[in-house]
C-alpha cells in the first residue's frame, strides 16, 4: 500500500514564533549574510540556516544575527550569492533571464497556481509571485530558505517537502495532485527509486534516458493545461526516446520548442531547450525557434547570457524570419523520426542553398556507396589481453587541410580481430564524429600493412570504405567540399557534446559524379596533394632559416 503524504499547507500561516521579529532588522541582517559568510566561513550562527531545523531554532538564529549585525543597508534584495549559498547539492543555477523567459511563455493569469517541482531555492517562485501567480513548490528536503523568503518578502509560497517522482503530493483520492500550469527544469541525472518507477511504468528502464522520459511523463501528468519545461536536448533527438516523442507528437501536445545557447546553465555541460506543452488544445503544427541565434545572447567570460530574452519571446509568438522560426506539421515531424531538435528544421542561408541544390540532384545515402566501419571497442581489446599487438593511432593532428593523413606517432595496443576491418587500408576515408566533428581525412596508399604496426582509429572516428559506385578520392573530395561539409554539419547533434550518430551518418546524401567528373576530381586531388607537399617542405625550410641566427 502506498504511503499517504500529508497535504501541503501554507508555511507562513503555520509558523509559530516564540519571539517577536523586527522585519527591518531581519532585512538588514539577511542582506549581509553573504558578507559574513565570506569574512568568516566558520561563523557558527550561520550554520543553522543550512540545516533541517525547527522553526523556533531558525527564529532564534535570525534574532541573534540581527543583534550581531546592524549596518544600514540601502536596499534589501535577495541576491544570487545568497541563493547560491543555500542551494542544495546538485541544484542548477538557472540564469534569471531564462527563468523570466519561461514564465512569460507560461502566460500566467492573476491567481493561477503554478507547479514548480525541484525549485529548491525558489527562483521560479519569486518571479511567479511578481506576475500575480501562486507558486506551489515540491522539493526534496526541508530547506529553511523557503521560510526566510516568505518572512522577508511577506509572501506565501506553498511548499510540499516530498519527492516529485517517488512520493508526489496526493489529493483526496490518493492521486498525484494536478495543477493548471507547470514551470520547471527536468533535471537530468537525478537519482530516482527505479523499483518504484518500474512499477508505475510499462517502459523497461535500461539507461538514464528512460528515467528522464519517465520524469517528463510524470510532469505532464501533473499538468492540466500548459507546461514550460527546460529539457536536456538529448531527449529531443535520441533514438532511445523516439517512441516516447512519437506519442507526444501524436497526442498533439507539443506547442513550441526553443533551442538555447550551449552552456546556458553554468557548470552544466548538457545542452538544454525550452519545450512548451499545451494540453488544452490540439497542436497540428509545432513551432521551432532558434534561441541559440546570436541575436539573443552574448558571451561574458565564456558564459552565454540571454540579453534579449524579451525579443526571443516576441519572436516565438510571431511570424518571424524563417531562419529563426518555422512551423512544422505533425506529419513531417513524425517522418523525421519525431525529432524535436530545432536544428533539424531551421536552416541557415548557406544550408538552405545546399538543401535546394541537393533537392534538384539525384543523391544516394552514404551507406549505399561506402562500407562504414566502426572502431574496435576498448572492451574487445581488454577482453583479449593475451592477443594484444602494437599499432599506431590516428589523432586530430594527422588531419591536413588537403591531401593524405600524415603518419601517426601515438602508439596503442589493439588486437587481431576477425577480418581486422578496424585497421586502416589504402584510400580509406576517416571522419571525425565526436569532438572536432566533420573533419575528414584520406589514407595514403603507402599505409603500413594490417597487423603489428598498422594504423587504427579510436572511438571518435568512423572509417568509410568506398564501394563500386564512387571512387574513394571522389568521395573524399565531396565530403571536404562546401556542399559536403554543410550537409555533414546538418547531422551534428547539439546535445551534451557535438557528435554524429551512426544512424544519421548512414543517411548522408552523396552526389555521384559521372566518369568524366571523377577523372577531373582525381586530377584536382593530385594537384592539391602536390601543393600540400610543397607547402610542407617550404615550411620546413622556413624553420631551418629561422634557426640560422641567435638560436639556442
Question: What's the short version?
Answer:
The protein is built from 20 helices and 20 strands.
What labels would you give this structure?
552 residues; alpha/beta; Rossmann fold; Adenine-n6-DNA-methyltransferase TaqI, Chain A, domain 2; 3 domains; 9-stranded mixed β-sheet; 20 strands; 34% helix; 18% strand; elongated; disordered N terminus
Walk me through the structure.
The protein is of the alpha/beta class. The protein is 34% helix and 18% strand. The chain is elongated. The chain starts with 10 loop residues before the first helix and ends in a 6-residue tail after the last helix.
Global Rg: 29 Å
Low-confidence stretches: 1-23, 40-55, 64-91
Mean pLDDT over all positions: 79
User: Percent range for helical residues?
Assistant: 25-40%
Total separate domains: 3
Query: Sheet with the most strands?
Result: 9 strands, mixed
Reported by name, the CATH topology of the largest domain is: Adenine-n6-DNA-methyltransferase TaqI, Chain A, domain 2
CATH-derived architecture of the largest domain: Alpha-Beta Complex
The assigned structural class equals alpha/beta
**CATH level 4 superfamily of the largest domain:** DNA methylase specificity domains
Give the distance, in angstroms, between the N- and C-terminal Cα atoms.
80 Å
Amino acid at each position: 500500500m502506498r504511503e499517504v503524504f500529508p497535504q501541503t499547507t501554507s508555511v507562513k500561516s503555520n509558523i509559530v514564533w516564540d519571539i517577536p521579529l523586527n522585519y527591518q532588522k531581519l532585512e538588514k541582517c539577511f542582506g549581509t549574510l553573504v558578507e559574513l559568510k565570506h569574512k568568516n566561513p566558520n561563523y557558527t550562527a550561520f550554520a543553522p540556516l543550512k540545516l533541517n531545523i525547527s522553526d523556533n531554532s531558525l527564529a532564534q538564529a535570525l534574532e541573534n544575527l540581527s543583534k550581531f549585525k546592524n549596518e544600514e543597508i540601502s536596499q534589501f534584495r535577495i541576491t544570487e550569492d545568497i541563493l547560491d549559498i543555500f542551494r542544495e547539492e546538485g541544484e542548477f543555477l538557472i540564469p534569471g533571464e531564462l527563468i523570466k523567459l519561461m514564465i512569460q511563455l507560461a502566460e500566467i493569469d492573476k491567481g493561477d497556481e503554478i507547479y514548480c517541482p525541484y525549485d529548491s531555492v525558489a527562483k521560479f517562485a519569486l518571479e511567479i509571485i511578481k506576475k500575480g501567480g501562486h507558486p506551489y513548490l515540491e522539493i526534496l528536503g526541508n530547506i529553511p530558505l523557503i521560510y526566510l523568503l516568505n518572512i522577508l518578502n511577506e509572501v506565501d509560497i506553498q511548499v510540499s517537502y516530498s519527492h516529485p517522482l517517488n512520493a508526489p503530493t496526493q489529493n483526496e483520492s490518493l492521486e498525484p495532485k494536478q495543477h493548471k500550469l507547470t514551470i520547471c527544469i527536468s533535471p537530468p541525472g537525478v537519482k530516482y527509486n527505479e523499483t518504484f518507477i518500474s512499477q508505475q511504468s510499462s517502459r523497461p528502464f535500461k539507461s538514464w534516458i528512460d528515467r528522464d522520459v519517465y520524469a517528463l511523463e510524470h510532469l505532464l501528468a501533473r499538468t492540466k493545461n500548459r507546461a514550460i519545461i527546460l529539457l536536456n536536448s538529448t531527449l529531443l533527438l535520441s533514438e532511445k526516446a523516439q517512441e516516447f516523442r512519437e506519442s507526444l507528437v501524436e497526442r498533439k501536445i507539443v506547442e513550441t520548442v526553443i533551442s538555447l545557447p550551449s552552456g546556458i546553465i553554468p557548470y552544466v555541460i548538457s545542452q538544454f531547450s525550452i519545450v512548451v506543452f499545451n494540453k488544452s488544445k490540439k497542436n497540428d503544427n509545432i513551432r521551432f525557434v532558434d534561441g541559440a541565434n546570436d541575436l539573443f545572447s552574448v558571451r561574458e567570460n565564456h558564459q552565454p547570457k540571454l540579453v534579449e530574452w524579451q525579443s526571443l519571446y516576441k519572436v516565438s509568438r510571431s511570424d518571424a524570419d524563417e531562419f529563426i522560426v518555422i512551423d512544422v506539421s505533425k506529419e513531417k515531424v513524425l517522418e523525421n523520426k519525431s525529432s524535436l531538435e530545432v536544428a533539424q528544421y531551421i536552416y541557415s542561408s548557406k544550408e538552405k542553398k545546399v538543401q535546394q541544390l541537393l533537392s534538384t540532384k539525384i543523391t544516394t545515402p552514404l551507406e549505399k556507396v561506402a562500407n562504414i566501419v566502426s572502431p574496435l571497442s576498448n572492451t574487445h581489446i581488454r577482453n583479449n589481453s593475451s592477443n594484444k599487438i602494437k599499432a599506431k593511432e590516428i589523432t586530430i593532428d594527422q588531419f591536413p587541410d588537403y591531401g593524405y593523413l600524415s603518419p601517426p606517432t601515438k602508439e596503442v595496443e589493439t588486437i587481431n580481430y576477425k577480418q581486422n576491418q578496424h585497421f586502416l587500408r589504402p584510400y580509406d576515408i576517416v571522419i571525425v564524429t565526436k569532438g572536432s566533428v566533420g573533419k575528414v581525412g584520406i589514407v595514403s596508399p603507402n599505409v603500413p600493412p594490417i597487423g603489428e604496426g598498422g594504423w587504427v582509429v579510436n572511438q571518435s572516428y568512423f572509417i568509410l570504405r568506398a564501394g563500386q559506385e564512387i571512387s574513394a578520392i571522389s568521395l573524399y573530395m565531396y565530403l571536404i567540399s562546401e556542399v559536403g561539409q554543410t550537409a555533414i554539419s546538418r547531422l551534428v547533434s547539439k546535445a551534451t557534446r557535438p557528435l554524429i550518430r551512426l544512424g544519421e551518418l548512414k543517411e548522408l546524401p552523396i552526389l555521384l559524379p559521372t566518369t568524366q567528373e571523377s577523372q577531373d576530381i582525381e586530377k584536382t586531388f593530385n594537384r592539391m596533394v602536390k601543393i600540400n607537399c610543397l607547402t610542407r617542405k617550404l615550411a620546413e625550410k622556413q624553420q631551418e632559416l629561422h634557426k640560422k641566427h641567435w638560436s639556442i
